[in-house]
Amino acid sequence: MNTNTERAMLTESKPVAKPRVVALRLRILRSWQLYVLVLPLLVHVAIFQYAPMYGLQIAFKNFRASAGILGSKWVGLEHFERFFNSYSFWNTLINTLLINLYELIFAFPIAIIFALMLNQVTKLRFKKWVQTITYAPHFISTVVLVGMLFIFLNPRTGMVNNLIDFFGGERINFFGEAAWFKPIYIISEIWQTTGWSAIIYLAALTAVDPQLHEAAIMDGANKFHRVRHIDIPSIMPVIMILLILKMGHFASLGFSKVLLMQNDLNIDASEVIQTYVYKTGLVGAQYSYSAAIGLFDNLINFILLLSANQLAKKFKQQSLF
Amino acid sequence: MKMKQATQITALSSAIMILIAGCSSEKQATAKTPADFHETGLPIVDKPITLTIAGNFDDRTGAKWNELETFKKINEGTNVQINWNLTPGTDWKTKRNLIIASDDLPDVLLDLTTSQVVTGGAEGTFIPLEDMIEKYAPNLKNFLTKYPEVRQAITAPDGHIYSLPLANMSEYKHADGNTLWINKEWLKKIGMEMPKTTDDLLKVLKAFKEQDMDGDGNPNNEIPLTGVYGDGQYGFGNLFGSFNTLDRQFIVKDDKVQFVRGTEEFRNAIKYLHSLYELGLIDPDSFTQNSTQHIAKISAGKKASVGAFFAWSADQITNASFRWDYGSPMIPLVGPTGAQVTAYNNLQMTPGMFTITKVNKHPEATMRWVDRAYEPEMSMMLREGPNRLKKLDNGRYDIIENPPNFTAGEWKVKETPYNSFVYGFSEEMRKKQNLPKAEPGQLDPDFDEWYEALKPYMKHWIFPNIMFTDEQYKQIERYQTDIKKYTDKMEAQWIVKGGIDTEWDNYLKTLDKMGLKDFIKVYQEGYDTNKKNLAKK
Question: Into how many domains does chain A fold?
Fold first, then answer.
C-alpha cells in the first residue's frame, strides 16, 4: 500500500484510533527497510533458538522415537532425580565449575593485561608482528591442538619430558595423571585464545581520547599511572560485558577439547557435564536422561548470567539488561 | 466468515484423505504385493526401484559401494538400485542413534545393536521379517535351517525376527583374536625361550627393557610391551586367562553369570599387570593411545622398536621389513596358580546387521535382493573378497595372495563392504578353500591349526549372543554407562598406581550402590531364558 495515502487516512481518523498503536505502525511503515534488515535475524533466532525448545519437554518424559515428542510418556522429574543421585553427579558438576573458574581467573585477565601491554608498544611493525603471532594459534583446530599436546607431552618422546629429563627431573605422564588435566587444559587454552581475545580490548583502547593521555603526561603521570587511571577505566565497560557474556556459558565449555583429552586415567578430573551428556545421550541412547542433564546445565548458566548481571548493576557498571 | 468455514472444511477433509491414503498404502505394502514384483527369477521388479540404505563403511573400502564388484553382482539384473548413505565406521555409533531418534528413516538400516533392533521392533520402526524369509529368501532360509543357533540369535523375545545377520560360522573363529606377539629376534639376542608362564614373560620383558635390543647404542628407547587399554583386540585381556578369568564384562561359569570386574580372579590379574607396570615394562602410552596410534607405533621405523604387543596377527600390521620378527606363545601362559585359559568365543556374528524399516515401500523386493547376498558363493565373496578367489574345476577355490602393492588386509577388503553388510558364511564353504599352508612359526589366528592348538585350553565362558527384552535393555542402559565408566577408571588406575588391595572393599561397595546386583540379575535372566529356549528346540 502507498505510504502517503495511508498516512493521510491515519491523520484524518486521528481522534478515534488508539494513538500509541497507530504511532508504532506508522513508525514501522516509515522505516520498513530497517525492519527488513532485522527480519532474517529474528527468523533465525525463532527457528534455531526458540523452536528447538519445544523438544526440551523430553527431559520430563520417557522419549520413544516412534511415539514422537508429544506421544511419549510423562514421567515428571524422574530423570533429574536420577542424575542428582547418580555416582557421576558431584564429580561432573565440580569439574565443570572448576575448569570454568580457572579459566576465568587465569585466562580472562591475561588477555586484558596482554592488550594493555601491547597498546604501549610504539613500534607499529613490532606490534603487528606480535599480534599476528599471538592470535595465529586461534586458527588451529581443536583436534590438531590436542594431537600437538599429546606429542609434546608424551612421557617417552615428548619435548617437554625430554627437557625435564635433561635437567635431571623425573619424566611425567601428563595425560595419565588426573591432577595434570586441568593445568594442561587451562594453559593450552591461554596459549590458544589470548591473542584473539585481546583484539577486542585493543580496539577499545584505540578509542581512548589521546587528550587524556596528553593531560596526564603534563601532570607528571608515568606509564603505569596512565594504564591504571586512563586505560583500564576506559575499557571497563567492554570488560564487564565480556565477563557477563562469559558467565552466560560458564557451565558449558569446549566440549570437544575435553573429550579428546579424556582417558580412563584422568577421567576423575576431566568428566564434565557436556561429555557426560554426550556419553549417555548420543552413545548410550538415553535421550530423555541426557536432555534432563543438559537442561540442568543450562539452568546453571542462566543463574550465573543473571547473578553476574546483577553484580554489574550493583557496581554501577555496564550491564546487559 | 463463509470463506473461512469453507477453507476449514477443505483443510479437514484433505487431512482425512491424507490419513486414509497413508493407511491404505501401508496396507498395500504389507498385505498385497505390487503387481510388477516377481516371486522368483529375474528381474525382481519390472520397473526399476531405488532403495535407500544407511550404514557405515571401512576406510579401506570407501563409501562408493555401488562400484564394488560384490554389489555389482548382487544388483545385476534385479532392477533394484541402491542409494547408499554411508557414514565412517567411527561415527556410526552416534549416527545410527540420531537416525533412529529423529525418525527420519531410510528403507534399510544396517549394523544396529541388538538393543536397537528389539526396541525398534517393539515400537514398529522395523517390520517383522520371518514370513518374508520363508517366502522370498531361500538362501537365507537354508542357512538358518543349517544353523539354528543363528535363528535363535536373531529372534527377538517377542518371537519375531526384525533383523538379518552377518554370520561367519567357520569353526576357527572360536579362537580369541587378542593374541600376544613377542619379538623372536630379540629373544634370540638375549638367549631366552618363548615364555611359557607369566613369570617367564616378566623376565623376558625385563631383559627387553634393560638391554639395547635394536642395537642403536641406546638401551632406553625400546618399548617392552605396549597395548591399547580397554580394546578387545589390542588390549591386555589375553593375560587374564592365566588368572582363570576372561577380560569380558560378563562371563558365565556353570550357568552362573559373573561380573568379571568384581571377582578375585580379576584382582589377581590386575595385580600382575601392575607388577609389570611398576617395573616400567608396560608402555605408559597404552592408556592414552588409540588403535591407529598403536599400529603406527608398532610398525614405525626400519627396525622393530617394540618387544611385545597384542593383536590379531602381527604380520598384517607391522612394517614389511620386520613383519615376520614376531611370534606368539599361542597357547595361554601358565599363571601363578597354574591357570591356563582362553575363550571359546561366540562365532563371528552381528545379529542386527540388516533391518527393513516401516517406510520401505518394497519390503518383498528388498528381501529378495538381500537374499542374493546369502547365496553361498556370494557370501564367500563378501567374506573373502572376489579378487582373492579363483574357482577351480573341481568346485574348490584357490586363494590368490596379495600383490606387492597391497597389504594383506587391503587386498582382502578391496571389493567388499568388509563386515559392514550381511553374509552367511558356512564351515562347508570354508572347507572348499585351498588355504595357503602356514610356514612353521608363522601361524596366526586365521589358520585352522591355530584353533586346533588352542582348543584344549578353551573355556565355554563367553556370554551367548542373545536378544534381551525391550524392558531389560532399558535397565541395561541405565546401569551400563556409570558402571563401565567407574570400573574402566579403577582398573586403569590400579594397573598404573596399584592399591587394588586397599581399595577393593570400598570399590565393591560403590558398585553395589550403583546397582551392580540388579545389573547382573538382568544378564542372568537373559541367560536363563535363552537356555530354556534352546532346550525347547
Answer: 2
Asked if residues A264 and B488 have their Cβ atoms less than 8 Å apart, the reply is yes
The side-by-side arrangement of strands in the sheet containing B433-434 is: B389-391, B397-399, B433-434
**pLDDT of A317 higher than 70:** no
Residue B279 has pLDDT above 90, yes or no: yes
C-alpha span between B236 and B179 (Å, rounded): 9
Predicted local confidence at residue A252, as pLDDT: 64
CB contact under 8 A, A154 and B102: no
- Which of A150, A156, A285 lies closest to B97 in CB terms? A285
Q: pLDDT-derived band of residue B272, with 50, 70 and 90 as boundaries?
A: very high
Residues B379, B140: Cα–Cα separation, whole Å: 10
The pLDDT assigned to A66 comes to 75
Closest-CA distance of chain B to residue A279, Å: 8
CATH for B179-343 (2.60.20.10, 2.60.120.20, 3.40.50.300, 3.40.190.10): 3.40.190.10
Number of Cβ pairs closer than 8 Å across A and B? 84
Q: A253 Cβ partners below 8 Å, 6+ apart?
A: A96, A99, A100, A103, A272, A274
Same domain, A85 and A44: no
A87 touches chain B (CB under 8 A): yes
Mutation for testing the A interface, residue in B261, B289, B481 having most A CBs under 10 Å: B481
C-beta atoms of B101 and A263 within 8 A: no
What residues in A contact B284, CB-CB < 8 Å? Answer: 155-156, 173, 176
Q: What element of type H or E holds B224?
A: strand B223-226
DSSP assignment letter at B354: E
- Are B89 and B59 in contact by the 8 Å Cβ rule? The answer is yes
- Which residues from B are below 8 Å from A284, CB to CB? 477, 480-481
Residue B276 has pLDDT above 90, yes or no: yes
Same domain, A37 and A93: no
| Chain A residues lying within 8 Å of B125, measured CB to CB | 65-66
Judging contacts by C-beta atoms under 8 Å, the chain A residues touching residue B488 are 264, 267
Q: Check: CB of residue B442 under 8 Å from CB of residue B315.
A: yes
CA distance B290 to chain A (A): 10
Instruction: Give the structural domain span for A35.
Output: 3-58
> Would the CB atoms of A265 and B288 count as touching at under 8 Å?
yes
Domain B34-174+348-436, second-level architecture: 3-Layer(aba) Sandwich (3.40)
**Among candidates B360, B350, B348, B346, which has minimal Cα distance to B129?**
B360
* C-alpha–C-alpha distance, residues B285 and A16, integer Å: 82
**A285/B101 CB distance under 8 A:** yes
Contact check, Cβ <8 Å, A265/B513: no
- Flag whether residue A19 sits within 8 Å of chain B, measured between CB atoms: no
Q: What is the pLDDT of residues A232-283, one digit of tens each?
A: 998 988 888 888 888 877 766 678 899 999 999 999 999 998 899 888 888 8
CB atoms within 10 A of CB B320: 10
Is the ipTM above a cut-off of 0.95?
A: no
Asked, as a colleague might, if the bond just before B445 is cis with ω within 30 of 0, I would say no
Average pLDDT, chain A: 85
Contact residues, chain A, for B101 at CB < 8 Å: 63, 65, 285, 287
Q: Quick one: closest CA in A to B488, which residue?
A: A264
